[in-house]
Write a structure and sequence with these properties.
Blueprint: H1 16-19, E1 40-44, E2 47-51, H2 87-92
Antiparallel strand pairs: 1-2
Length: 95
Amino acid sequence: VDVKKEEDEPAMELDLDSLAFRDGSHTMSNKKCDLPDKSWRAMKKGYEEVHVPAVRSVIPSDETLVPVPELPTWTHDAFKGMTSLNRIQSKMCDV
């Protein structure tokens, strides 16, 4: 068994200056940010936590989910136990 030792591997140099932000770390900071209702902030030592609740999407009334039995027979095994495709699958079904 040929085990390669660490000393056999060439050393790699990493140029940290090339990875630094051109304008420093302040390019990602905002002075003012409007948050949705029921959002809240928690100031911590050295950072700020921003909690934003998940958005509940409203399903349009004309949107229908594709029933699995309407799919080709060879696809039915992939959707065992499911009655219909989800919203994204239903939109992409005819593409």
